[in-house]
């Protein structure tokens, strides 16, 4: 990357947004909110409670229903208004047994996890030769039909990035690899886990079959197992693997969103929506994904409104079924998309510190961005020149043009844990969690109490 | 700890051992050996090969036999003399299914691994209430019969130490806990893994039943699962757990040691024995425990003797069945204990750097210790005032009074990995491994070529 004189660029791009403003009357409450939220226990208690008393909560299962009941009870106890569940139905993929072993030339077990929507193998499993592709591009370049009867193996290694951007790029192996492999005739596909750790824990995650392909068994190997399989293949002898991935699909299972509010003084000013998701993958207890996000937004809303009602209603959306395709976010949009929304924000990237704020606001709202940034700066949070984009739970609202602020969390260690059995409470750093609550509290306060229209009125 | 003036104490304790000596003729070869060994690839290739081409190799199984065949072939190819296996028979405990779940009050799966010699549950498992003991002392204090029909749970947390000493203390929970629990009437015992990590991978390990107790199912929970169970119990409701630990015992299974030598010029001067173990636990590929030790001692012996035969024979002992009680070490002693041994050393603590040398030498051999320490010092290795004690594979020889040097490895992260599925090649740091080879090479050179008698003649 070329070195640029940052001062000049900043002035050009952010000239009006980030110029200092005189303190407004609202800003006198900011230091108090920020400091109180840094001592927060509500978020930790929420995460500890949900992960201990409910644990894993896959979308569309009885465990997710338990999570909704738990969240409703907790949100009522915390004093939220209009606490309710909003049900919908969805198809559910359920994991069975995940087993694999190298049969030849060096027999040994492999650790793996079926990917969401994987086809099931027969109960006795299936066995075939493994064909290795170092990258997804190599798999794509394989001639049609060339994998007939074989097991494809793609071992494209992901490295950690602070902004999590490597997930988008390398995650394509999980999202697209299974469909590509099926199209070329493979009877199953193994991928290297989309993860940055070195533990014998496989990273699950959803993938959707392209319309034109037959679903095949698809699974992720732990990164040490992927390394091992690459080494075994490197010995130059044909490598045969036996895979047993039993799973099933159920149609029309109950899922739902949980909604809670802190009512504002001016219903016509639109709601500020703070989103997270209640469901988790099945292997861990979903502490960082996404009990943390739910703890953060609930705690922050309470801190923001502690001194009394703000102009706008803060609405908490604890979405269902984020992990498997965003059914909860779509159900929310179907039910509430026509209501005025002044702002949407989402917390779904763990519990490590917020390091950057991104904005996407209507023209003429630079002063609001400047006030939010000024409120965040004492927490060590910088601003970006990247437009905010939200996440799965609020995607339909963002696409509909609702303003959005992203409080970007440090993702350096997120993909060590993401979608593995290791997503447990011990991975949550309470001090960093409290910084999140503080950042969210001041951002919600500034936004919910902003005199600006935010496109609503 | 009181601060002491280290210089004074060192002078008192180590006065004669560590005073500088004039360079001997032998010492001119030391820098060459030390530097060449720091570039070693033999140890890495040994570890990579054994863990890839054999993988897990539990004692007394066909996989351990594969490992012996592999090691014999590799040692012959490396140019060792008198390469051979020395068989013996042993009882073998074989792991089956390891499954557990909390039934009430918060149903969820737990990750665990049966401990060696655990009794098997019925195939359908067993279920009972869990009785929690924070420490082993609390379990010991429970009245006799008070655990009748219950599952004991001891969650004594171990912390990392550089010298590994916390394993001795906290490992008592694994070694003694099952017998104590059985004696008090428990139908099963769960312990917190004897480990220092925070991953959903349970640490296995052997335990031996006391003569007066009935074996019961015994398993270690991963540390996050132990934390979770403590939290669940902390809610104050009775906690019921279902455990399925199927396993079996076989009698008179074949195991064996692998021996290889670099013959010395003076057979009557006694051998220098460099030991490691070939067997591993079943969950990982035994990279740090103990393919590393075997790679280190084999590579170091070659570096030590590169310039030609030394005075004494260097004998490599790659012992079988260390993990399950030291059958290989005892078999070696039965076969060879009467032969003159000038020195025994063992490498069985991973592949992280050697940081300290401990000695136990005959009276009057201070000059040899000083020469070894001087050869090790450029590698950043200090000396201790602790007497060397060896390890399981050489325990009978050490008890018989054979001189011993311990090249103590840094154990800070060893118990993150030890006896888990995570014991894989990626945990080996090649630079630290090469430092081990270098330290061993100079220590073997000085010892095998020493003019001193070392109690032999």
What does this structure look like?
Chain A has 457 residues and is an alpha/beta fold. Helix content of chain A is 32%, strand content 25%. Chain A is built from 14 helices and 14 strands. Chain A has helices spanning 6-14, 30-37, 42-53, 62-77, 136-141, 165-170, 172-183, 223-234, 287-304, 327-336, 366-376, 395-399, 414-417, 430-448; strands at residues 81-104, 108-110, 112-114, 126-133, 151-154, 188-192, 218-221, 240-262, 271-277, 314-319, 341-346, 354-360, 382-387, 404-409. In chain A, strands 1, 2, 3, 4, 5, 6, 7, 8, 9, 10 and 11 form an eleven-stranded mixed beta sheet that branches. A three-stranded mixed beta sheet of chain A has the order 13-12-14. In chain A, strand 1 and strand 2 form a beta hairpin. Residues 1-27 of chain A have low confidence and may be disordered. Chain A binds chain B through residues 48, 51-56, 105-109, 111, 198-201, 223-224, 227-228, 231-232, 235, 283-285, 420-422, 424-427, and chain B through 48, 51-56, 105-109, 111, 198-201, 223-224, 227-228, 231-232, 235, 283-285, 420-422, 424-427.
Detail the topology: elements first, then pairings.
The structure is a homodimer of 457-residue chains.
Chain A: H1 6-14, H2 30-37, H3 42-53, H4 62-77, E1 81-104, E2 108-110, E3 112-114, E4 126-133, H5 136-141, E5 151-154, H6 165-170, H7 172-183, E6 188-192, E7 218-221, H8 223-234, E8 240-262, E9 271-277, H9 287-304, E10 314-319, H10 327-336, E11 341-346, E12 354-360, H11 366-376, E13 382-387, H12 395-399, E14 404-409, H13 414-417, H14 430-448
């Amino acid at each position: 990357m070329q070195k640029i004189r940052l001062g000049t660029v900043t002035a050009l791009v952010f000239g009006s947004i980030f110029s200092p403003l005189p303190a407004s009357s609202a800003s006198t409450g900011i230091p108090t909110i920020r400091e109180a939220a840094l001592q927060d226990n509500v978020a930790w208690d929420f995460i500890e409670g949900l992960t201990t008393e409910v644990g894993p909560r896959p979308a569309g299962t009885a465990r997710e229903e338990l999570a909704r009941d738990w969240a409703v009870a907790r949100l009522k106890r915390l004093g939220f208004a209009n606490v309710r569940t909003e049900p919908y139905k969805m198809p559910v993929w359920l994991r069975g047994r995940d087993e694999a072993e190298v049969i030849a030339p060096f027999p040994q077990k492999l650790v793996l996890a079926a990917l969401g929507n994987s086809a099931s193998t027969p109960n006795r499993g299936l066995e075939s030769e493994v064909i290795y592709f170092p990258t997804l591009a190599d798999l794509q370049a394989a001639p049609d039909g060339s994998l007939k009867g074989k097991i494809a193996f793609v071992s494209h290694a992901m490295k950690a990035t602070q902004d999590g951007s490597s997930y988008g790029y390398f995650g394509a192996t999980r999202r697209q690899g299974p469909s590509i492999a099926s199209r070329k005739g493979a009877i199953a596909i193994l991928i290297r886990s989309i993860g940055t750790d070195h533990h014998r824990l496989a990273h699950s995650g959803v993938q959707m079959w392209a319309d034109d392909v037959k679903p095949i068994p698809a699974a992720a190997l732990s990164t040490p197992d992927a390394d091992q399989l690459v080494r075994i293949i490197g010995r130059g002898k044909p490598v045969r693997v036996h895979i047993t991935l039993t799973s099933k699909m159920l149609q029309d299972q109950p899922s739902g969103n949980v909604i809670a509010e802190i009512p504002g003084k001016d219903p016509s000013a639109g709601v500020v929506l703070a989103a997270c998701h209640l469901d988790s993958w099945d292997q861990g207890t979903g502490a960082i994904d996404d009990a943390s996000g739910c703890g953060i937004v609930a705690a922050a809303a309470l801190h923001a409104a502690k001194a009394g009602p703000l102009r706008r209603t803060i609405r908490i959306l604890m979405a269902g079924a984020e992990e498997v395709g965003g059914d909860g976010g779509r159900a929310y949009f179907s039910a509430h998309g026509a209501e005025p929304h002044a702002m949407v924000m989402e917390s779904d990237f763990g519990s490590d510190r917020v390091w950057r704020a991104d904005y996407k606001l209507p023209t003429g709202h630079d002063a609001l961005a400047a006030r939010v940034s000024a409120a965040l700066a004492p927490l060590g949070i910088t601003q970006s020149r990247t437009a905010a984009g939200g996440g799965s739970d609020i995607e339909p609202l963002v696409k509909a043009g609702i303003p959005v602020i992203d409080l970007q969390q440090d993702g350096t260690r997120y993909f060590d844990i993401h979608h593995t059995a290791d997503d447990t409470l011990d991975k949550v750093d309470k001090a960093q969690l409290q910084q999140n609550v503080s950042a969210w509290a001041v951002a919600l306060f500034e936004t919910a109490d902003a005199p600006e229209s935010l496109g609503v009125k």
